[in-house]
Amino acid sequence: MKKIIVTFIVIVCAFVLIIVFQKPSQQIESATEHKTNNLYKNEISLKKLQTYLKNQEELTVYFYQTSCSHCKKVTPIVIPMAQKLKIDLKLINLENYSETGWDEFNIDATPTIVHFKNGREDKRIVGELTEKAYELWFKSIKE
């Protein structure tokens, strides 16, 4: 009888420990997911981009793909950096478009950031680069 009670107590303790240690990890995942979703709040469509360009507005667009390993590393760097430098960075997920977005804006790889002025491309930066390279590029479009 003692063996059954001891076994039962061990099993109950194991379940309690699993529950206790599982909740913090779920909270961390939830916080990370919220932070990641916040990065993509400035996403626009290709149609909206075409409207901006037709109106000859100045804007900076970050072309990316959610499945791109380089984009996953670059996004958490460039979006907060653009915000800090007060650059209204628009985002376009090229996974949502077939060849249209790639061809129309001459995108060969992601991530690509393009600055448009007077409805035309002014400057471009492509690939996974250093944080300093992005900072210098962002500062150059503000000049």
UniProtKB/TrEMBL annotation:
<keyword id="KW-1015">Disulfide bond</keyword>
<protein>
    <submittedName>
        <fullName>Conjugal transfer protein TraF</fullName>
    </submittedName>
</protein>
<dbReference type="InterPro" id="IPR013766">
    <property type="entry name" value="Thioredoxin_domain"/>
</dbReference>
<dbReference type="InterPro" id="IPR036249">
    <property type="entry name" value="Thioredoxin-like_sf"/>
</dbReference>
<comment type="similarity">
    <text>Belongs to the thioredoxin family.</text>
</comment>
<keyword id="KW-0676">Redox-active center</keyword>
<feature type="domain" description="Thioredoxin">
    <location>
        <begin position="22"/>
        <end position="143"/>
    </location>
</feature>
<dbReference type="Pfam" id="PF00085">
    <property type="entry name" value="Thioredoxin"/>
</dbReference>
